[in-house]
Design goal:
7 strands; alpha+beta
């Protein structure tokens, strides 16, 4: 049986380290934030580690919770099943919101000129890093 490494959300420093490592090794990810569904920032990391100390993580967490709630309603009224992601594309990059559980959201921001497909692939790599199988 494969066990998954459980990262204690009460250890935001360790989670932030993993996010920073992930963003430094995954070309298309500039920053990542773990947020609760009620809009609280749990941990953040980025290519230089600055995201964790910035107001960006706090704002991203609050907006992610609101956007995921709206996305849940859209998928419910359209009968398309459970929400898998919410994506925003701008002229200089993208931001994606990915539910990791019923209470936790992963927010991933791209580097400049990354499209939605590459952002989604980067987010899946970050999720894999956070859920590394153990022994």
């Amino acid at each position: 049986m494969t066990r998954r490494l459980e990262i204690a959300l009460s250890e935001p420093g360790r989670v932030a380290e993993l996010l920073t490592e992930a963003c430094s090794t995954i070309d298309d990810a500039a920053y990542a934030v773990i947020a609760s569904r009620d809009g609280l920032a749990i941990a953040a990391g980025g290519e230089s580690g600055e995201t964790s100390d910035s107001d960006v993580a706090l704002r991203a967490a609050a907006l992610a919770a609101a956007a995921m709630g709206i996305g849940d309603h859209f998928t419910a009224i359209s009968a398309h099943g459970r929400l898998q992601s919410t994506l925003f594309e701008a002229d200089r990059g993208c931001v994606g919101l990915f539910p990791m559980s019923s209470t936790v959201i992963l927010v991933v921001g791209s580097r400049q000129s990354v499209n939605l497909g590459r952002l989604t692939a980067a987010a899946k790599k970050i999720i894999a890093i956070l859920q590394v199988p153990t022994g």
